[in-house]
Write a structure and sequence with these properties.
binds flavin-adenine dinucleotide; FAD/NAD-binding_dom; FAD/NAD(P)-binding domain; 4-stranded parallel β-sheet; 418 residues; alpha/beta; 25% strand; 26% helix; 7-stranded mixed β-sheet; 2 domains; flavin adenine dinucleotide binding; flavoprotein; elongated; FAD/NAD-bd_sf; FAD/NAD(P)-binding domain-containing protein
Length: 418
């Protein structure tokens, strides 16, 4: 009796979704091979899944979003797959594509070498600010940040994307209060909050009119916005403040600085020949196979070169990559592929929603502008925790396999969110 491992690296939106999909739809449909069992092994540094989407509010208030709402244990979510699922708390450190093994350092410091018959890379991205990336210290990072906010007189947030906009709004509302009905600015703000955008508008994916509405809502909470301003560096001073150096040579001194200027792919454990020029895992944009890594290696989620990122996009990608995995494993077992490849098509429609404080928000879905109350209803109430956090870790969005036709654009299925 032998066991073959489908190895998933990364236990967040993409890796957890891929593992559920494989257990529910890929392994059960493989042709039976005498004496061989297929299992899924998931490797992740934390035993908990982090609902990163809520980071901007969780960082600011444990009353609004306590720990139990942003961290969810991974292993119990796979209880239905007893004997077919294995969780390893650790980090991949090296991949040997010729030998088809991955080296892992476990949380207790042990070295393991895990052989794989198929590999799914879903190691995602790290944010420059520790407020938005899961770590063993996340709760204490939030405690410390919330303590510093109590005395802050000037907070600078760098980055005009949704994370910067949402974070500036949450901080300003927590410190300056909710605006009164007709006011355009708080009368006596407790804290100055400055949002620095490198471009001429915030929220680059959205049309200008929506960005201007976001600026108006931020202003009501006491956020000042600087456009066309690059941040060159942010250096801590001896007294706990930060000096933010701007591209035009000027500096701003802040009590607190939150860096929301972008993300870095978690790909340093992979050989250079598997990466593109942005250090993303270079995949076939249609099949999501990592062709340079040899047979049966795939990428899903934000670490992949095929995507502009986001959870809706990876929800489209998972069924594609996992269907191709089923095809490739069947061919491996029987010597014959059961059908053609499934293809991924990127959804490039205007699509993003950003709450601004607990009451307002802006955004668009499938190219349609959403009114503020809809953004609040979908995301602003609780950053979608009530609607989607437990279903995501349980893989509920992938309970059904979903139909597809060869070469047809892939519609959205599985998870569905902004
Ligand atoms: C603050 C914030 C708010 C966001 N809000 C939204 C939103 O509202 N809507 C939306 O669509 N998108 C949103 N995003 C983007 C969304 O969070 C990402 O698209 C999503 O997290 C990507 O999921 P992923 O599984 O690909 O990677 P990640 O979530 O980055 O997870 C990667 C996982 O892999 C693990 N890992 C890293 N290295 C290794 C290794 N060597 N070995 C094993 N495991 C490893 C990590 O610890 C992590 O658990 C937001 C992002 C941020 C930062």
């Amino acid at each position: 009796m032998s066991t073959e491992t489908i190895l998933v690296l990364g236990g967040s939106f993409a890796g957890i979704g891929a593992a559920h999909y494989t257990l529910r739809h890929t392994i059960p449909q493989l042709p039976k091979k005498q004496g061989t069992t297929y299992i899924v092994t998931l490797v992740n540094p934390s035993k908990d899944f982090y609902w990163r989407i809520a980071g901007p509010r969780a960082a600011v208030s444990k009353d609004l979003i306590p720990r139990a709402k942003y961290l969810y244990p991974i292993e119990p979510a796979f209880a239905y797959a007893k004997g077919k699922f294995n969780f390893v708390q650790g980090s991949a450190t090296h991949i040997d594509t010729a030998g088809q093994t991955v080296s892992v350092t476990t949380a207790s410091g042990q070295q393991q070498s895990i052989p794989y018959v198929a590999l799914i890379i879903a190691t995602g991205v790290t944010t420059p600010s520790s407020l938005f990336t899961n770590s063993a210290d996340l709760e204490s990072t939030y405690d410390e940040f919330q303590k510093s906010l109590l005395t802050a007189k000037h907070v600078v947030v760098g980055g005009g994307g949704p994370v910067g906009v949402e974070t500036a709004g949450e901080i300003a509302e927590a410190l300056n209060g909710k605006p009164s009905f007709l006011s355009s600015k708080p009368k006596n703000p407790r804290c100055r909050v400055t949002l620095i955008c490198a471009d001429k508008k915030m929220l680059p994916i959205l049309r200008e009119a929506i960005s201007l509405t976001a600026e108006k809502y931020l202003s009501r909470l006491g956020v000042e916005v600087m456009y066309n301003t690059k941040i060159v560096s942010a250096q801590p001073t001896g007294d706990g403040n930060t000096v933010v150096q701007l591209g035009d040579g000027k500096t701003i001194e802040a009590d607190l600085y939150v860096d929301a200027t972008g993300v870095r792919p978690n790909s340093s454990f992979l050989p250079k020949e598997l990466l593109d020029t942005r250090n993303r895992v270079a995949s076939n944009p249609h099949t999501l196979r990592v062709d340079a890594a040899g047979p049966r290696v795939y990428v899903v989620g934000d670490v992949g070169s095929y995507t502009r990122g986001g959870v809706m996009d990876l929800a489209d990608a998972i069924p594609v990559a996992m269907t191709n995995l089923k095809t490739d494993l069947t061919a491996y077992i029987t010597g014959k592929a059961p059908g053609p490849d499934r293809h991924y098509t990127a959804n490039m429609k205007e699509q993003q929603i950003a709450p601004i404080g607990t009451g307002k928000g802006v955004g668009a879905m499938m190219g349609w502008k959403l009114p503020s109350f809809m953004v609040w209803f979908i995301k602003g109430r609780d950053y979608m925790i009530g609607m989607l956090a437990v279903p995501t870790v349980n893989g509920d969005g992938f309970k059904k396999e979903g139909k597809w036709k060869p070469q047809q654009a892939v519609g959205q299925q599985g998870l569905s969110r902004g």
